[in-house]
């Protein structure tokens, strides 16, 4: 049975900064700025400072954002500060428009490479679309190295189509294929526009290539809120359109959905989703056992 709570009953942060070797993953659909907002709650001028407060409180190690226009992406970067680095792109042919981005804590990690896939039959062609979506859709992929341990992992951030089920399923199948092809732990996160019983979720988790961190978590730090509240009070048991998925080998210590409200106002029409994970670091090679020194004592010598 679903229940609702008043927005002011929700606190922040859900996770906050974590220490190595734990990694705080966070994904958020920022909600694009529009000229004619659907309500006062949707005004970007009202939401921008709330988003900055949210990010300052959470301090994720790895952040994936979706649906941010270039000026909104600047607000995200400014809120995180100079310590963070970012890769990403807009979805249009000129690489502008709504962006998907990956932000990482530069004190702990560095990017090794990145690439962009347009979710179509020609994924290397900017602005291409052929899966059934009217608008271009992208996935941003990066390989990241941990500075302390030297371990590497892959992150993919995406925003699937909101209208076409065919596009969502084909995009999810494409992303699962990428995840299968990569060496090492993989994180796939974003707004998938499909709930637990949708075809897109079945495609993403098929063949045990990826698992949902919410189901794999040792601890859940929040109720299972729906992630698309449209600025209304959050609902327990609502559809989780936004997810963080990982390789099955990744240890998921905790998961959370944080419908944070600041004086009754939300930073986005989507709720941020969080996971605290540890990568499967290989065991160090055992050191060779020291060999005993040759005994050079004469017969009859004794130790004193």
Rg of Cα set: 23 Å
Number of strands: 13
Shape: globular
Instruction: Kindly report the spatial arrangement of strands forming the biggest sheet.
Output: 3-4-2-1-13-12-10
**Major beta-sheet overview:** 7 strands, mixed
Average predicted confidence as pLDDT: 90
Strand content: 25-35%
| Total of DSSP H or I helical runs spanning 4+ residues | 5
Uncertain segments: 294-304
Distance between the termini: 80 Å
What is the structural class?
A: alpha+beta
Domain Endonuclease/exonuclease/phosphatase: 26-270
Region (Disordered): 268-304
Cofactor: Mg(2+); Mn(2+)
Organism: Leifsonia stereocauli
Summarize the structure.
It comes from Leifsonia stereocauli. Helix content is 17%, strand content 27%.
Features:
6-stranded mixed beta sheet, disordered C terminus, 7-stranded mixed beta sheet, 304 residues, 13 strands, alpha+beta, 5 helices
What does this structure look like?
Residues 268-304 are annotated as: Disordered. Residues 26-270 form the Endonuclease/exonuclease/phosphatase domain. Residues 280-304 have a biased composition (Basic and acidic residues). This protein is an alpha+beta fold and 304 residues long. The protein is 17% helix and 27% strand. The chain is built from five helices and 13 strands. The strands form two sheets. A seven-stranded mixed beta sheet has the order 3-4-2-1-13-12-10. Strand 1 (23-29), helix 1 and strand 2 form a beta-alpha-beta unit. Helix 1 (44-58) packs parallel to helix 2. It is globular. The relative contact order is 0.17. Residues 294-304 have low confidence and may be disordered.
């Amino acid at each position: 049975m679903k229940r609702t709570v008043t927005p002011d009953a929700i606190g922040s942060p859900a996770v906050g900064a974590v220490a190595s070797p734990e990694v705080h993953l966070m994904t958020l659909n920022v909600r694009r700025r529009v000229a004619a907002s659907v309500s006062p709650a949707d005004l970007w001028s009202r939401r921008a400072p709330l988003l900055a407060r949210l990010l300052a409180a959470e301090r994720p190690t790895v952040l994936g954002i979706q649906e941010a226009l270039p000026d909104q992406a600047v607000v995200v970067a400014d809120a995180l500060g100079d310590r963070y680095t970012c890769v990403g792109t807009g979805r249009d042919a000129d690489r502008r428009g709504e962006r998907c981005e990956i932000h990482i804590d530069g004190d702990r990690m560095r990017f090794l490479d990145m690439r962009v896939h347009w979710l179509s039959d020609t994924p290397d062609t900017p602005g291409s679309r052929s899966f059934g979506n009217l608008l271009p859709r992208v996935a941003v992929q990066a390989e990241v190295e941990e500075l302390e341990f030297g371990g590497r992992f892959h992150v993919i951030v995406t925003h699937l189509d909101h209208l076409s089920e065919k596009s969502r399923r084909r995009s999810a199948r494409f992303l699962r294929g990428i995840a299968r092809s990569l060496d090492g732990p993989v994180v796939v996160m974003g707004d998938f526009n499909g709930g637990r019983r949708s075809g897109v979720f079945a495609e993403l988790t098929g063949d045990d290539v990826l698992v949902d961190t919410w189901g794999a978590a040792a601890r859940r730090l929040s109720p299972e809120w729906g992630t698309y509240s449209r600025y209304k009070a959050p609902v327990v048991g609502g559809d989780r359109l936004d997810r963080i998925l990982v390789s099955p080998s990744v240890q998921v210590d905790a998961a959370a959905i944080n419908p944070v409200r600041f004086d009754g106002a939300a930073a986005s029409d989507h709720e941020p989703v969080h996971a605290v994970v540890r990568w499967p670091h290989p065991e160090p090679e055992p050191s060779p056992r020291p060999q005993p020194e040759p005994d050079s004592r004469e017969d009859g010598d004794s130790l004193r």
